[in-house]
Design goal:
binds pyridoxal-5'-phosphate; Aspartate Aminotransferase, domain 1; alpha/beta
Length: about 400
């Protein structure tokens, strides 16, 4: 199989990930942070080491490991940030490029009358103008949320400029780094990010069920989930201390052991090396697609390579993306994601709603030969779509 769905989750994982998880299960699978015996302390120390490593990796100026809070994925991190930071009457600014893990919590809060929010449009190539984001900020704006890179088009958004505008106006800046973490350097200090939501199972090469929220200095979301923490158990209220305030319940310590191995692999290989490889693949794929009649590449204009990740959405004239995805899987064993990719407003902006696109997304393990095979499969599919159209006429 040619796996081209890295924007959904990375696969296969580096071999050290499974090894670390197996080691954890064999030797350390006790409840971290709940008991005082040696093994429980060692398990908790492993989780805490990862907090510190991730805080450093993301350039958190707070430099406090406890400000890395673990969640199940980016979705739960974004829900925690949105639910924990917004107060009645607040206004939020975000963009049409957001994933449903941002759009739906905002919709829910707005529907119950708690907040209002504005959606900043993108241009035809899938970029948001930072001046347009700033233009929507008002004295009521508590939070600005930006998708660091679109999971539909791979477009990298101007996070530094948006962060700078937020800092000037004292507005909290929440960055959704689901697509960028582990691929593109993300420096909270340089980008003026107050809260960074990441997922462990994509670019960071960890297993599913891992992710988190990294909190900069002074960013203090309220708890949105309540329960056991292993500290101050006699108190009826959730402890105010981080990370306990935001981490009720037993941690996915097995998954975090895998995430630590994924992170170590990314650091050892180097994000620049990974990104350069993925960009080489993307360049060849985009150029190849442009030469195929009936195939449209969305975005990825010449000269914008540095502003894209290895995520490419295409459509085929005369063939529904879902059907195309099925043929790619069945005839060529190529795994892609079709449809709206949980970002419906991005597709509305691009004019590809409601059917969406065929999304190819490349990872560190993909090869040039696989790109050529994908292009050959697309060419065959385009021919088939054309023949179908001729028959229909
Ligand atoms: C931009 C973006 N945000 C959030 C998410 C949600 O991530 P997770 O699957 O870890 O909840 C995704 C996943 O595809 C994404 O691409």
């Amino acid at each position: 199989m040619i796996y081209s769905d890295h924007a959904a989750t990375s696969f296969p994982k580096p071999p050290g990930v499974a090894r670390a998880m197996n080691r954890h299960l064999d030797l350390l699978a006790v409840n971290p942070g709940r008991s005082g015996f040696d093994l429980a302390l060692e398990a908790a120390a492993e989780v805490d080491r990862l907090r510190a490593d991730l805080g450093r990796f993301f350039g958190n100026p707070a430099a406090d490991p406890d400000r890395t809070v673990f969640t199940l994925n980016a979705t739960s991190a974004l829900n925690l940030a949105i639910g924990g930071l917004c107060r009645p009457g607040d206004h939020v600014v975000t963009t049409v490029l957001e994933h449903n893990s941002v759009l739906r919590p905002l919709h829910m809060l707005a529907r119950t009358g708690l907040i209002t929010f504005d959606l900043v449009p993108c241009d035809a190539a899938g970029f948001v103008d930072p001046a347009a984001v700033e233009a929507r900020m008002s004295p009521q704006t508590r939070l600005v949320i930006l998708n660091h890179a679109s999971n539909v088009l791979g477009t990298i958004q101007p996070a530094a400029e948006v962060g700078e505008a937020c800092r000037r106006r004292g507005i909290t800046f929440l960055l959704d780094a689901a697509q960028t973490a582990g691929v593109l350097p993300v420096d909270m200090a340089a980008l003026n990010v107050d809260a960074l939501a990441f997922t462990g199972h994509k670019g960071l090469q960890g297993p599913t069920g891992t992710g988190g929220l990294v909190l900069g200095p002074g960013c203090e979301p309220r708890a949105t989930v309540f329960g056991g923490t292993g500290v101050r158990s006699a108190e009826p209220a959730q402890p105010d201390l981080l990370p306990y305030r935001l981490e009720a319940g037993t941690q996915n310590a097995v998954g975090l052991a895998g995430l630590a191995a994924g992170l170590a692999w990314v650091i050892e290989r180097g994000q620049e090396t990974i990104l350069a490889h993925e960009r080489r693949l993307t360049r060849r794929f985009v150029a190849g697609c442009r030469g195929l009649p009936g195939v449209t590449v969305h975005g990825h204009q010449a000269g914008t390579e540095e502003r894209h990740l290895a995520v490419v959405s295409v459509t085929l004239e005369g063939m529904d993306p879902e059907k195309a995805g099925m043929f790619l899987d069945q005839d060529a064993e190529i795994a892609v994601r079709t449809g709206l990719q949980c970002a419906p407003l991005a597709h509305e902006a691009l004019g590809t709603a409601p059917e969406g696109t065929i999304r190819f997304s490349f990872g560190p393990g993909n090869t040039i030969e696989e790109i050529d095979a994908a292009l050959a499969a697309l060419a065959a599919l385009a021919g088939r779509a054309e023949a179908d159209q001729d028959r229909a006429e």
